Amino acid sequence: MKIFLDTSRVEEMKRWSHIIDGVTTNPSILQKEGGNIEEICELMNPLPVSVESGGDFYTEAMDLWEWLHPLNENLAIKVPFLKPNGQDNLLVIDSLIKEGLTINCTAVFNFNQVMLATKLGCRYISLFVGRIDDEGGDAEDIVRDCCDLVSISSFSDRNKPDQELILGSIRSPKDFDRYAKAIYDGLGFSIITVPPEVLQKMIQHKYAQETSKQFENDYVPVVTLKGLKDTQKALEIPHPLAGD
Ligand code: E4P
Question: Residue 154's pLDDT is what?
């Protein structure tokens, strides 16, 4: 399973660099968090970065690609499944893929949309599980169906082996837990994109910290152990870090 960071904050990308496998952004994240797209692409390279197009979607996507692909070899251009007027972007996406762009079909909300984006040959398909749940849907169920979909290799001749489903719109550690378990390993649909705040909450555990404190109190430094080669004798010597 891969973890992408859903942010445009470079300091968070650096903070989590040892954990993350890529970055996703969207216009609202950029609006809220700021950030320099060039810097993000260069920093993360060769790890994938998704940047979203808007406007007419086609020329904007081409411009983004021309500008940023030299900075990040695994750049993906996000194109929402639907335009703001409710028409689909499938033809636009098809044309962009034929031009050689790597596409992340985003703002996907149901199995049928996943299926169609998969059939087009999108590299990534971003299912917004949190928003599906928000409106009373069952995102876990959709994820399971989608995992079955990618296991059907004869589904489409344009269905590429490296296609991956990104589970986005993760709001809490519980969400992460649920969706990580819903992913069937090895079937390609394997990415969760998560905001830094959720990752931060995921690492916290009151008793893990208390346990670590206990071990810190009882710890005998290597230099002391080496000198006495006997833990009991070493324990009689005051801990070098202990106060008076
Ligand atoms: C995914 O690529 C999106 O950027 C993101 O997960 C959307 O999440 P939201 O529903 O919290 O806006």
Answer: 45
Residue labelled with tokens 């998560």: 194
pTM for the model: 0.89
Looking up residue 194, the CATH number of its domain turns out to be 3.20.20.70
- Out of 196-200, 225-229, 234-238, the most confident range is 196-200
Is position 213 within any domain?
A: no
**Residue among 169, 179, 191, 193 whose CB has most ligand 1 atoms within 8 A, to mutate:** 169
Does residue 207 lie in a domain region?
Answer: no
Report the chain's C-alpha Rg in angstroms: 23
Q: Which atom of ligand 1 is nearest to the CA of 171?
A: 11
pLDDT at 12: 98
Q: What dihedral angle (degrees, nearest 10) is formed by the CA atoms of 175, 111, 62, 100?
A: 110
Closest to 166 in 3D by CA, of 119, 107, 120, 115: 107
Would you say the CB of residue 119 lies under 6 angstroms from ligand 1? Answer: no
